Amino acid sequence: MSHNSFGHLFRVTTWGESHGPAIGCVVDGTPPRLPLTEADIQTWLDRRKPGQSRFTTQRREPDTVRILSGTLEGLTTGTPIALAIDNVDQRSKDYGDIKETYRPGHADYTYDTKYGIRDYRGGGRSSARETAMRVAAGAIARKILGDGIQIRGALVQVGSQAVNRDNWDWDEIHNNPFWCPDAHAAADWEKTLDDVRKSGSSLGAVIQVIASGVPAGWGAPVYGKLDADLAAAMMSINAVKGVEIGAGFEAASFTGEQNADEMSAGNDGVRFSSNHAGGILGGISSGQDIVVRFAVKPTSSILTPRKTVKKDGRDTEIVTKGRHDPCVGIRAVPVGEAMMACVLADHMLRHRAQCG
Amino acid sequence: MSHNSFGHLFRVTTWGESHGPAIGCVVDGTPPRLPLTEADIQTWLDRRKPGQSRFTTQRREPDTVRILSGTLEGLTTGTPIALAIDNVDQRSKDYGDIKETYRPGHADYTYDTKYGIRDYRGGGRSSARETAMRVAAGAIARKILGDGIQIRGALVQVGSQAVNRDNWDWDEIHNNPFWCPDAHAAADWEKTLDDVRKSGSSLGAVIQVIASGVPAGWGAPVYGKLDADLAAAMMSINAVKGVEIGAGFEAASFTGEQNADEMSAGNDGVRFSSNHAGGILGGISSGQDIVVRFAVKPTSSILTPRKTVKKDGRDTEIVTKGRHDPCVGIRAVPVGEAMMACVLADHMLRHRAQCG
Amino acid sequence: MSHNSFGHLFRVTTWGESHGPAIGCVVDGTPPRLPLTEADIQTWLDRRKPGQSRFTTQRREPDTVRILSGTLEGLTTGTPIALAIDNVDQRSKDYGDIKETYRPGHADYTYDTKYGIRDYRGGGRSSARETAMRVAAGAIARKILGDGIQIRGALVQVGSQAVNRDNWDWDEIHNNPFWCPDAHAAADWEKTLDDVRKSGSSLGAVIQVIASGVPAGWGAPVYGKLDADLAAAMMSINAVKGVEIGAGFEAASFTGEQNADEMSAGNDGVRFSSNHAGGILGGISSGQDIVVRFAVKPTSSILTPRKTVKKDGRDTEIVTKGRHDPCVGIRAVPVGEAMMACVLADHMLRHRAQCG
Amino acid sequence: MSHNSFGHLFRVTTWGESHGPAIGCVVDGTPPRLPLTEADIQTWLDRRKPGQSRFTTQRREPDTVRILSGTLEGLTTGTPIALAIDNVDQRSKDYGDIKETYRPGHADYTYDTKYGIRDYRGGGRSSARETAMRVAAGAIARKILGDGIQIRGALVQVGSQAVNRDNWDWDEIHNNPFWCPDAHAAADWEKTLDDVRKSGSSLGAVIQVIASGVPAGWGAPVYGKLDADLAAAMMSINAVKGVEIGAGFEAASFTGEQNADEMSAGNDGVRFSSNHAGGILGGISSGQDIVVRFAVKPTSSILTPRKTVKKDGRDTEIVTKGRHDPCVGIRAVPVGEAMMACVLADHMLRHRAQCG
Questions:
Q1: I want to staple A180 with a disulfide (CB 3.0 to 4.6 A). Which of A186, B352, C356, D198 is the partner?
Q2: What pTM did the predictor assign?
């Protein structure tokens, strides 16, 4: 058991604080002889990197990853792969004022209560900076999964503004700074988030991640269910408050007739009339697209003063200056994709172990 | 790693199929010298037991639990506690017709694809019968947590009919067969579910589980987050398609100002102005109520014919007769409570291990 | 983590006390569609069963195993296999006198100190009765390994009397009640152990277990080494005080020249001039026989009075009557074989997961 | 599950190859607010460092450790502690000639067979260089255990020359380069090892590690036994072929009367007349010294030509030049101490979790 590891056969352990010398991870269980270079990982990290538009934190981190072990001449060796990213643009002074004060909605209070000590610099371990290592591990997971499996994420809601699914165009996600598949929604969000940004406020969001090409049979009853692992993986991302698979909460309103994804014989296997199940039945993949959505709350680091308490128990107010994301949901898209990749890689190996 | 275990220090391993001789579990890690008798467990099992109203399956199982190890003279000894329940009311003939046919929305197809073999009798391992052992384990978890922590579940939505939270009355949940805290909603549901039942259809539902009295400090960054473990626990329950904590998906629509639970000095510690966080910040409990909701899809066992395929790949139609729940969400309430208890007991021990 | 489980992908959890209603285990991770009946397991249990000669405990336990889950029509289904054996010949009165007194060399004192409670009836959880479930699990492990891998154990030393390895004859182990491969040694032991038995004393022993046919490549650096897992597996057997692989402690006296198992090209792969490594290099199997030995201390249940203390701290003497083994090493032979089988089955699956 | 992690609540994951840019580890589960600086760790690393006498490898590694996360202002924060040591004195050319040839007694052949790829530079992952991180982790474990628990190791046998236990003097281990507690034996070993070194040969050894001050009650039945975990920990050290607890293999020759450690009432708890059990009964500590011994084979890197095969299967001979230890057992002493510390720290937390 490790509080800072996830996965079983594809197992990732992350370490590091927002303002320490570096962050990193150890990825164990990778099959041998997979091509893997730092560039293969960097390409995914660059998508999550802060400071790429005015809608994400202005912290400037090159996030340059180094492979410290586990490869030889561009191939994985089957031994643990250690990755590290140096922290470059730390400005600890920005955070000095919150050393003694708990930001509402942040982990400040709970860390102090649990441990009796807290690395207050930039949120320490609770910083979303940790998610860079998830993206790095996800890059390795994608190598394991191979080209036959495609994992794509999109932002589908910002505040109360959802995309129109009739407008969905995967190509569109590269045309706006939001990973938005709906050009109209993207235009609306731009206005909305400019207002939010200028007022020093923030907004929540919903992310959808889809994995295509996953064969039927991955996942395992009863506590190794693919959807249970996906739920934990997504919920472990900073600020996530909800996770759903397929029809999700909407399924509560369905009748059995509406919900059943009918099956028929197709040319290359079973066909389904719909995908309310989100590609998972009884915790095992059905061969359909795996569909996961998760909700991200608005960041609590805002310019409007909020009531709170100090470490010594006295009442006070706080304004969090720092450099923050008006909508942390944006950068959560590549993180969600990475967690999907890691869970699938783990279950691919688990399935191979038991079923050959 | 075990696909059929959950928890780390309070660790539960379940076994058994719907129509095998028995189902059971092994609970490891229980502290010694806790009072524990079969009656302590039976009382919770009786709440989940089938056949208690016309709104749940008419299968008649006494679900009498036996303690096979781990106690001496009414006290736990610290060694593994084995529990078993004999299966009594199996009618395998009911299920003979689905031996060769995959029920849409069921795990039939995915089990067969994964394992190349499937216990078709009553769903085998994928049957909700397995959840009886969760409830049994939850009874032990409650003993560990002690009387200071209260865990209560309620059904808050059936189909598209949600409770009115202004009417919430915990006492009410014992006055109707739905664990419904709103008397008006309960009356509506009775009508709705009678219609559903008579027409051989089914409906989804949403369950809310609240734990009060949990001290601040349980849970752990980053992959041992309390909410990540709760998400996995709830998502692992049969038919669950979504999990949310506190404000959940609604938090996506919030601004940072709306979402922040402001803090102030109270008489016995910190007070919060609201609980959008659902009692968890940074994966660690804050001392507020832990609030979890999960969505259950309608059962796929319905009387309306649905298109599907046979094991040999040919198209067919299926009507699932058997004895089923018109709304499986009802019996999911005690199961959700049990999973909350198990996750909390595990984290209580995990916190004690690291932080003393 | 579970204190009562071992293995990772082939994972066994045992439960039960010497004088409770039953003992049992849950075996998770077994590949599907393996032929498995109760008879397949019973045949191995019968080899370990008490009361088969005058040299083992006279407790009469039929040790009849029941499969409670995880198979269908004689094939494994891939879901957890639960096994149970009812305890039949409990005579709790035999042990009443040790309820308040700690037997030297037994776990009585440490259990009481750890847990503040102890099932004193027949040793409770610390009884060697638990090893029956290891043998049962080992029978399933052998099915996974298949016929190409042969696992055989022998008693190679009783007290200070070792076998003469020049006399080694595997067929001989079925001709005496000791699993002794040397007919001369067996004759000597018979005399020795009759004396020991009559005087109410006991003797230690050394067991050797050999696995043939294991392919090169199983095991994993650095903490998943095959020999590290074997060491833990054997040391976890009751009364074991030492484990060695290949040349073992004798290797300390070797020079590098003596120790090196030289290699040469053979018809079907590499040949080794010797097997001091015991078939494991760098924690990974080399294709040679896997050779493990372990030492078992003499049972502490003897008729000679020994000084000890009572639960209340006062000095006393104790004579342990009950029904005990003059040499517990004898019945440890099938247990050692079973642990070898379980470790190998686990590593077979682990290797397949990572390396395909 | 991770092949490169050990421990459960005090959990260490190591990474790195002999000739990669660095080696490191992540230590998770450390309690918060323990004083910890790099100097606290360095002091133990310096004891294991190569090149300290003519009897160990002449590779010159300063082995300077850096703490990359998990501490703040000299105190642990409860989050994962990442440690790294840069590899400085790599001479890859030394090893070029073994790229295509398997050294007998080394892991070369098994790694290649398992993974189909091998980092041949200095043994890659199979190098004893990995043990530096065990020593580093052990330094943290000692902090958890506190000053009340003393862990000391000694070399007790080199080749066939054992210490005389009547001469045992703990102070003596600092007066010779062997950690030898017997001045006479140390003088003999000096002569022996000079001969071995000059002839380019090597010798095996036996190490003993003793932990004093461990309270009764740590460890857990049945597969979480303290001795089982110690056996795995020691056997996972490079070149170890045998592990024993207390009387170890000698216990096989004992009668029950000889073996029993009799108990009597002492001033501050139970007293034992002897310690054949090595401080562990039923897998749980008894309050006596924990006594472990392990045997290390001679290194296979010797100057005498040995027969072997090349990667392409052809016969050849090999002489391993490089820079090697004539007796790797010497540097195994601090490694054995570290493993003892890690296992005890883990079990301290495990005991606290379950028993408070």
A1: A186
A2: 0.97
Q: Do D356 and B31 lie within an 8 Å CB cutoff?
A: yes
Per DSSP bridges, beta strands C11-16 and C22-28 are antiparallel
Query: A249: burial class by Cβ within 10 Å (0-12, 13-18, 19+)?
Result: buried
Please tell me which of the candidates C107, C249, C286 has its beta carbon nearest to residue D109: C286
* 3-class secondary structure per residue, C107-155: CHHHHHHHHCCCCCHHHHHHCHHHHHHHHHHHHHHHHHHCCCCEEEEEE
The answer to whether B124 and B108 have CB atoms below 8 angstroms apart is no
Q: Which residues of D touch B352 (CB under 8 A)?
A: 352-353, 356
H/E run at residue C317: strand C315-318
Contact residues, chain D to chain B, C-beta under 8 Å: 1, 9, 29-32, 78-79, 221, 349-350, 352-356
pLDDT at residue D98, rounded to an integer? 80
Q: How far is B76 from chain C (nearest CA, A)?
A: 8
Q: Which amino acid is at C278?
A: G
Burial of A293 (C-beta count, 10 Å sphere; 0-12/13-18/19+): buried
Burial profile A6-41: b = 16 or more Cβ within 10 angstroms, e = fewer: bbbbbbbbbbbbbbbbbbbbbbbbbbbebebebebb
pLDDT averaged over 10-residue windows placed end to end, chain D, 356 residues: 93 96 98 98 88 74 93 98 90 70 93 95 92 98 98 98 98 95 97 93 97 98 97 98 98 95 91 97 98 95 90 90 81 97 98 96
Provide, as residue numbers in chain C, all residues whose Cβ is less than 8 Å from the Cβ of D258: 298
Please classify residue B200 by burial: count the beta carbons closer than 10 Å to its beta carbon, then call 0-12 exposed, 13-18 middle and 19+ buried: middle
Identify which of D196, D252, D258 has the shortest CB distance to residue C206: D252
d(CA A215, CA A205): 30
Q: What is the ipTM of this complex?
A: 0.97
pLDDT in tens, C153-171: 999 999 999 999 999 999 9
CA dist C338 and D272 (Å) reads 34
Q: Which residues pair with B279 in a beta bridge?
A: none
Q: How far apart are the first and last CA of chain B?
A: 26
With H, G, I as helix, E, B as strand and everything else as coil, classify residue D320: coil
Chain A hits for B287, CB-CB cut-off 8 Å, are 113
Q: In chain B, which residue's Cα lies nearest the Cα of D79?
A: B221
Residues of B within an 8 Å Cβ radius of C:
1-5, 8-9, 11, 13-17, 20-24, 26, 28-29, 32-33, 66, 68-70, 72, 75-82, 84, 114-119, 124-125
Tokens at B90, concatenated: 């199996």
DSSP string, A126-193: GSGGGHHHHHHHHHHHHHHH-TT-EEEEEEEEETTEE--GGG--GGGGGSSTT--S-HHHHHHHHHHH
Sign of CA dihedral B315, B317, B322, B325: positive
